[in-house]
Amino acid sequence: MKKHMRKALSFVLVLGLLFSAVAVSAFFVPSSNVPVLAETESKRSLLPADFDTTVIKKQFREQKAAELSKLRELLADTEYMSEVVRVMIELNAPAAKQSGKSESSVIASQKSVRDAVRKITGSEAINSYGYLVNGFSFMAKRSDFQKIREIPGVKNVSEVPVFETTMFNAPDMTKASQVWEELGFKGEGMLISIIDTGIDYNHKDMRLSPEGEAQAKLSKDAVAGLIAEYGLDGKYFNTKIPYGYNYADKNQEVVDQHLSGRPYDADYVSMHGMHVAGIAAGNATDEDLDARKGIRGVAPEAQLLAMKVFSNHQTGGAYGDDILMAIQDSVKLGADVINMSLGSPSGFSNVNNATARAIQAASEAGTLVVISAGNEGLAYASSPNNMTTNVLGQIIRGADSGAVGASSTIEAALSVASIDNTKAYDTVMSYKVDGDPAVSFHVLEQEEPYDGRTFLDGQWIELVDCGLGDTDEIPDEVAGKYALVKRGVLLFEDKAINVADKGAIGIIVYNNVAGPPDSLMSGVENGGISSVFTSLEAGTAMAAALEEGGVVTVNTAILYDMVDISAVPQPSRFTSWGPTPELNFKPEVAGVGGMVYSTLNGDQYGMMSGTSMSAPHVAGASALIMQAMKDNAALNGIEKLARTQYLKAILSNTATVLMDGEVIHSPRRVGAGLINIKDAVDSLVTVTHNGSGNIELLDFTGSKKFTLDFKNYGAEPVTFTLKDPVVYTAPHKGPDPEKDVVVPTADVTTANTTITVPANGTVSVEFEIDPGDVESNYVEGYLEFETVGAPDLSIPFFGYVGSWGDDLPIFDLVEGMPPIGFSLYNLFIPELDPSAPNLYCVFSATQLYRDDPGIGAPTPAGNWWDWVLGKKPFNPSTVGFNTNPADSEKDYIIQELTPHVGVFRGVQDVECFILDKDGNELRQVGWVDSIRKPVLHRLSRFRATIATLYDTQWDGTLYDKSNGEFFYAEEGQYFYEVRARMNEKSDWQSIYMPVKIDNTIPTGLTLPESVTYEEGATEVKINCGPVGDGAGTGVDLSSSGVLLEKLNDKPRQPAQDIEYDGEGNLIITINVNPKLFTGLTSTIAYIVVADYVGNTVIETLMLNEEGSGADAAKFAQSKDGSDAWRPVKDGFVKYNKLESDTLKMPKGLGYVVALATGAVERVTVNGQDAVDGKPYLYAIEVEDGVPVDLELKGFDADNVEVSTSTGKLLVDLTAPTLALENELKFNSKGRPYVEDTDTVKVKVSDNYAEGRNSVVGFDGEKQFALTVGEDGTVSIPIAADAGFVVLVPVDYAGNRGETMSFFVLPEGKDPEEIAAPMEPIVPNAGDFWIVEPESLKGLFYNGWVFLYMDEEAETHQLTLEGKSKDLKSLTFDGVEVLGDDGAWAVTLTLKEGLTYVNVKAVNEDDLVIYDTKIRFFCDSHVPNLVFETDPASVGGYDFVFPEDTHDPEEISGSEAPLVIWTTEETLDVNITGTASDNTFGYKLTINGDVVLDYYDITEQGPDINELPFEYLVEGAVDKDFIRLEIEDLSDFNATKTLLQKIQVRLDTTAPTLTPQYTIPAVAGLPVELFDDDTLDVEGDEVVLSAEADDGDGIGIDDAVGIVITLNGAPYDGEPLGPGTYHAEFYVKDKLDHKTTVELDFAVVGDPVINVGPDVEIYAEDVATFKPLQGVTATDPLDGDITDDVTCECDLPEAFAAGVPGTYTFTYSVTNAYGRKVSVERTVKILGKPQIFGAVDTTITQGDEFDPMAGVTAHDNEDGDLTDEIQITGEVDVTKPGVYKLTYTVVDSDGNAVIVVRKVTVKEKVVPPGPDDPDPGDPDDPGPGDPDDPGPDDPEIPGPDDPDPEIPDPGTMKVYAPVAENKENDVDVSGDDRITYTIGKSKGATYRAVADDLGVEDLLYVTVDGKKIVKDKDYTVEAGSILVTLKKEFLDKLKPGKHTVGIYTTKGHSIKILTILATVKPTGESTSWLLYAGGSLVVLSAMLVTALFIIRKRRDEHSG
Fold it and tell me: Model-level pTM?
């Protein structure tokens, strides 16, 4: 019932279209193709003035397309599909063993399906099965398979294999069984990954023995740890299958099954992976093995990884990304071997794709990747004559015929060929010779006639030798006997017919070559007798017995037994040959792959053949060798890459060389030979060439040397002897082109044929091969090395003598071109259909192809249709384009042409170009990475096509370098060139395909206004005149012809012929009566003439039957609202309600249009004239559903009646009703049904009973439309598997009634099982899921979608919504999204690139109907383009990219072009850089040439796909454009393109340069600067600048900029003040064109007066003060103007009087430019402190003396300073003499006054006595005189006697720093006076500060005028100078004030230091009074001075 529901759904989807079609046939819906009635009195009007001819053109082409669409059927109905083969049909219902029913009841239940199959095939069932399998076998065409699959209940349809061979013998062939039994290695501890369709882990042979479990590599816990470590998604299954994952569906179901619900998808359950797993490691129990109920693989105790990469839900192949993940995870899990029985033919070894990298990485990790070599045999094995040579002598079946498959061609992979099993457990019959014991012979095939078996099974029937089956060889005594016939010469069918004609009742055909057959006995069943096909060996034995006179009898009863297939191993016929296109050695070894019996799902077994079977054999063998290596101390240290290289070498070295009689089987076919596991385990020596176990000689001429390396891993030396080498070559022709032949003139030699390899050592031996007389062919063979006590070794060699790249042709011939006019591949494809004899060439022709909308597939351009039909040979001059941009019709115009190219060789360097008619290259349109070599049997048998060079299509455009855009090429002849080469050292080979640009319509079409034909004419000729196409592609007669306006239809093509007559006129012959064809007496003929590129001209004429009249027609309206008409049959005009409403007919009226012909000028209808203003339209009174008879009368110009005709008018506004006559029932869910019956009858009722009503609908199988009978009923035929039926009544006028629908319940079905019509059976979004957005409708069916996001981001949100009925669960990555009403919505977060999402759907019956992985390919970024062009790389010419070159990520088509500048008239531009994309790929074109074309959905990201590019544009001239365009390939339907143009520009001139200046004080524009300018500007400053302009040139060199040199030094840009300058301005462009401007200028400024610093003088200095002394004046331009300076004092009188105070002196000067400057400085008259009373005095010895008595000090600022007086010196009143006292006082400004006072102590006069000495001369002081200082008495400097060391006061300042003195516990006052307390303070610090003052500048320090000792009394530190008086020194000073002097080279300063004691000294009051008195005196003086100044200024003011 589910099938019914699916079909019901498809009906729902198309029902609207069905009804639309029915409606059109029943009533007229206005459309644009209706002829429009002109607003004129004319009796006929054909087309309006604005008629769109594209409407007619399109209709004509659509009908031609319908004719061409027959090709689809022809292409499907090939000989292969028509071949009758035996098929096994398996049913869904379980077999007896599964169901518990009897076998007979199961077989009986098959009847209905068998009957349905019989109807399809016309044959009877051969065998029926019911116990283990529910099914039967039939003979059927392959084309019937699909029909059989669609029968309800059918589970699977498969072709019955020829053999059922076994696995039992295969392990013996490679000595695996010896390794098991003798060495004990069965794969324990080894892990083999099976990357395939899946493994049934519950199969009874998927087990480990207890011993195997104990040594297993992966335990359950270990797997759990690896899953956690690596985040793996799979799971543990059992000890044999410890891990598996379904990478295709993103779930853990690893069993191969198809869950789509489609019965025919069961075909995809190949169980291929299960078969492979059994070969590698099946492990039947001993009991099952003995009973032949199980198999044992090569490594039975190895564990297997079930890495499933084929989907259970999506049909088709495996995705590359899934395979990569499986490889990666296999390595993570520690797989020792990976088996990949996958691939495709004719692979390349020189690849760098993701698969290659993954295989290499696995190999480097120590995992050997074993891959099947493919099943293609020789690429050219199907040629009809074994060799085909064209007239050029090129050999198709030549040396390069390898077909070895990818990815086994990858260097790191081990490529495995196939050897046939030597034994098989299969069907046998028996024969006897003269009654001797029976001898079994192998039944390879048996066929039965359609009338049943004629063999007499169980009887011994005599056999008669009938030779080859020719009638002359067949004896008469064969009648009633079996005929023995040898294969050959005649067809199988002819042999059977011939012996049957002689009365034979059966035929036994034996093969004519050894080994299994290479084809089936096609057609033998047509002989009418049973037939058997057996081997050459069996047939020869029987024939020999008969020839010796023996009586041979045969019993045809079928038995099963072990049969010998061949005595020695033979290569499988299907195994793919090498080498690779790069001449690399593949395949490398061979395993058993032909006729292998192994495991299938569900504890079943079966036979398969292929290299898919040989690969796991070698994979299992590799596991055994690895196990042995681990057990061998000499080998167990070999790890990672070294391990895989060792395995490949040892498998090759120990393989068995396979012989074909006396010669070898070619190494190109079997590699090193059949693996020998035992020897591989036993050997410890390898022999390699460049690290490989084979010798690749590549191509060479003459002799060639090579070196072999022997490596001994053992502890003992091994000596080998070289067996005499034999060199072979390949014949490529003759009776056995696959058999090698010995080259007697060739040899392989070496200096020493005995080679000893030391223990653990290596020996290298040089060999030389001499190819003898071999030319342009292979040399090959084996070097065999024999030894004793160890396995012999061998290594295969092969090479090509000649030039591999140049000796052999690459391309097939171009179709239609010389030398022979057709492609050679045409010879290999049999004819498809006699009506289209060249149709097969569509697959094989090398030509330019177009996407043909008519056939829906690519077809050759040009006259291909005539060619296909065999009417004309292919004409290349008809190939071309219509590129006329004004042609708005694009659907049938050729928009681009793509080459299909036949190659005889695989190439990886292919380029495509467009040339003009003279062969000049105009444009490169692309290149392709590679073209794989076709395999002929795929071409001839499976209709595979030759290569299509995608992305190299030409759209007719060329590149215009003047604007960087593409334009359509001008009309004319062009050529498409494809060129290729095998490698870089080979020459290019090219083919040329002509193509025209043709935009001109055919000319010369000349038609009469009308053509009149006789009544009853069956042929009408139309002469179209001398139609031609000039120099165009030619008139396409297959696309030209006539359309006739047809009754109740759009214009149609009648049967017609079109040809040219002898005078060059185009004649169209209509081969039907136009009136009978159209239903019209007068009709429009549309003449359509087109050329081969679609240029079309359309003209019209009127076809009239002889006579005059008026016919009724139907009124209509065109889309634009204008009036139109439609013809009607028999004059019956009818309207339904829809039409009446559309035309807005008044109630009770109906419209009739009268069409007049001949002499008729006026018409009346039922006596009425036409409607006013519409002379063609008549309004007739009507009633609903009641027809009105019409009478139309025609009148001529004289108003004479000349014709009468009749008709009817019906306006029917009422819809019909429909009633079901069968009983309608309902189930509990309210679903209507009728029980199964032969017919369902309904009755239609309508108000117009006379009309033909109908019923349209769908019966679950097909759509239909049935006419209702006279009684109003109609029987609805129900298809055998009908389900949901939908019916709609339609009445005669086209009104539709209400829809009726119901189910048809099959017999025996429960009504409650009826499912809703929308039940989701098939997981196809288009079928049952309404998905939004609309663009993703196919998501769940396809399993992937490309999404191009508009907004760039790294992640994106995508919301999907849908609705489905009868689903129980719907999850996305495990999250349930299904709502209660069936609606669902999910928001997915997608990353840039590839995101996997698992979708799982479960229906209400808990069946998983969908569980697989969806791929979302998401991209939002345009590709990245980075320029890296080095100017030096462009032919040595100078050019640069502008510095403002756009960030490549920001480039878009709107950006201004980049520019390349040059100084050369022509320039070769080498554009280099890199391109990349964040995700999938891109295509980069430069000037239209494809430079990079990268696409990889497996590996994404710029780190992967970033590629360099280089493109040379030669001879570019000024203003040429170079166009770079990079296209994002993330979505072929919504691509984004990044476009950048680069323009070449010529620049030969230097820039212009304008010097300028700006005035900083004025915000103005720059002003041009001229030579000798004198600038008198505001602010007296200017800033220089310059303006440079390169015009249309490259631009200023910004790296240098404008350089300004000022007075010989670089100008720093700072403002320039007044002065004279010489400036040089320099600039250059980026091409080094230079401009220099030099000029002089001056800047006017103010004079400068230098008056020096302010001055301080004393009053006594006023008289000598000169105010102009030292004053200077300069001018920037005039120089020294000191003499012009004037000076004025503000108070000259007071200054002259010496009154202390500050005076202002103003100095002025004026320069030559009138600039006056005045400068002021102050002169301060200081009031020095004065000491009063310190006058010399004389006292008498012994008098009291107070040095301060009468002494005071006063200052005009500080007042009384008496207390500050410091006295140095002492007076000893007891000793007479002259004493010197020094009085010092310092004011707050540091002014010091020193007064030296002499105190003379007179000797007290005492009268001298007689003994007193002479007092001496008083003017001559003695030594005791105080005026004579002693040596210890320091000299005290005085004002008149300064110490010569004392410097001037200078600029040095001294102050007492607070911070340091705070630490000293001293007080510092504001005037830097320090107060020190004895016993408390710690020292006193002074800081001296001046410019550049350092410790080294200190001269000395004084206290109270006396120098003190450094370090003893004070310390010095840096910080300018930091002087600290020590505590020890200060504590010794007397309390009171002291002076501290600091003397440096920068000046000196004296500060006051106060020393405090604990008790204040006496005399303080006196000092204060003295101070106060002094202060009063000073204040009085200051007051007098102030009054004097005020008085003077008042007098000046008043003056």
Answer: 0.64
